[in-house]
Amino acid sequence: MSTAAKAFHAEFEVSRYRQDFPVLQRAVRGKPLVYLDNAATSQKPSVVIDALEKYYSEYNANIHRGVHTLSEEATVAYEDVRELCRNFVNASSVQEIIFTKGTTEAINLVANTYGRSNLEAGDEIIISWMEHHSNIVPWQLLCEQNGAVLKVVPIDDDGAFVMDEYIKLLSPKTKIVAIGHISNALGSINPVKEIARLAHEQGAVVLVDGAQATPHTAIDVQDLDCDFYAFSSHKVFGPTGVGVLYGRQDLLEAMPPYQGGGDMIKMVTFEKTLYSDLPNKYEAGTPNISGVIGLGAALNYLNSIGIENIAAYENELLDYATDAALKVEGLRIIGTAENKASILSFVIDKVHPHDLGTILDHDGIAIRTGHHCAMPVMDRFKVPATARASFAFYNTRQEVDILMDAINNARKVFA
Ligand code: C6P
User: Alpha-carbon distance 208 to 194, whole Å?
Assistant: First the structure.
């Protein structure tokens, strides 16, 4: 490690941040927990847990409806988080921030509103081979409904997006390009800015699935020039059951509502309903108020550390883990793209990933094994499953060492 890198490591106070996460203090099967399943869901700092408790114990009320104090306090807290989210992705206005249940619902919202009202038989939707099922199935459903055609950009042997093939697939028939910012199964970072630029040349709109990018990298939707950007609270250290769809204001205004119900209307008669202005038009029913408030606490917490500092620390940690993994006999990394973030997917000769996951759990180590909801990636690499260690800024080199020792021991058991 360079002197500058050593100095940076010393500055990034990982041991202090670890104290902020109660669950990281626990033991599993008598060993200190080594939590390396952050891509599935991240752990929650005390400030998030406290924010939930405070909401429920001090100002629990429905929002946008009551004139009483509790409702007003809850409404202000909820709407403040919209501004935090706007700032987090650098949207130009809070009207462009829609709260959803998560990334999955955000993508389904776009498919069912923009997709249904703008695509016709023969129109094309482009995704990539490394997409999570959440960014495949909603588009397949749309294709079944309106006769559109799904086109898939291949990935190379390193798990990187093949730009030349993408360019070949683009045409005036392309209406939507939906691409993951960072692959959950491989860690590859996709060149979404260039992808969006090329899509726009053909008049297509661009949705970016940011579920895996938001915990690891600064997001600027204006710079990326994407039309939609989706992410989940629970991956950015917030509660489950809540997420965000950023959408370009003119598109959101033109699209039909996703769901009908309370809070998304201005006026209802049996003959006609007038819909609310943005963003309420897309938030029918009582939303996940506590979840949104918890997300706000998580974003404030992330901002206090600085996403650039997090990215720099995690990049070094991933390099360290990759070097260590390459020394393990019989281990093959799945996903070796030049631009990668925080994910180490691998297979080991003669050890099924599920068996490895079970053995590691005995050492208190949590990784994910399986297809990671990205079955086409498994097909592409001709493996039934991988083992995946996914890192957050609270993980340490010591934990990587524990992981590698445990993998070596598991190999011996199976040898
Ligand atoms: N990936 C993983 O272990 P939800 O479930 O809506 O919060 O996020 C869905 C989703 C969408 N896109 C990507 C790239 C994702 O990684 C995920 C969630 C988890 O990899 C659970 S399958």
Answer: 12
CA dist 76 → 54, 69, 72, 279 (Å):
14, 11, 6, 15
Tokens at residue 364, please?
């208190």
Residue 390 in contact with ligand 1 by CB distance below 6 A: no
Residue with tokens 């996903």: 335
Task: In whole angstroms, give the CA distance from residue 281 to residue 31.
Answer: 49
- Whole-number pLDDT of residue 214: 98
Residue 373: active-site member: yes
pTM over cut 0.90 = yes
Same domain, 224 and 340: no
| Residue 71 identity | S
Check pocket membership of 373 for ligand 1, CB cut-off 6 A: yes
Quick check: is 415 in a domain? no
Residue 108 Cα to ligand 1 midpoint, Å, equals 13
Q: Count other Cβ atoms within 10 Å, centred on residue 343.
A: 25
- 123 with 230, same domain: the answer is yes
Q: Do residues 324 and 357 share a domain?
A: yes
Please give the Cα distance from 383 to 367 (Å, whole number).
18
- Nearest ligand 1 atom to alpha carbon 243: 7
Task: Determine contact, residues 38/391, Cβ cutoff 8 Å.
Answer: yes
What is the 132 CA–ligand 1 centroid distance (Å)?
7
| Cβ of residue 342 lying under 6 Å from some atom of ligand 1 | no
The boundaries of the domain holding residue 146 are: 49-303
Q: For residue range 192-203, list pLDDT tens digits in order.
A: 999 999 999 999
Confirm whether 267 is domain-assigned.
Answer: yes
Which numbered atom of ligand 1 lies nearest the CA of 373? 22
Q: What is the pLDDT of residues 128-185, one digit of tens each?
A: 999 999 999 999 999 999 999 999 999 999 999 999 999 999 999 999 999 999 999 9
Pocket test residue of 207, 212, 367, 386 for ligand 1, highest count of atoms within 8 A of CB = 212
Is any atom of ligand 1 closer than 6 Å to the C-beta of 103? yes
Of 255, 279, 303, the position where a domain reaches its end is 303
Of residues 137, 95, 65, the one with CA closest to residue 282:
95
Task: Kindly report, residue by residue over 77-105, the tens digit of the pLDDT.
Answer: 999 999 999 999 999 999 999 999 999 99
Does residue 132's CB lie within 6 angstroms of at least one atom of ligand 1?
yes
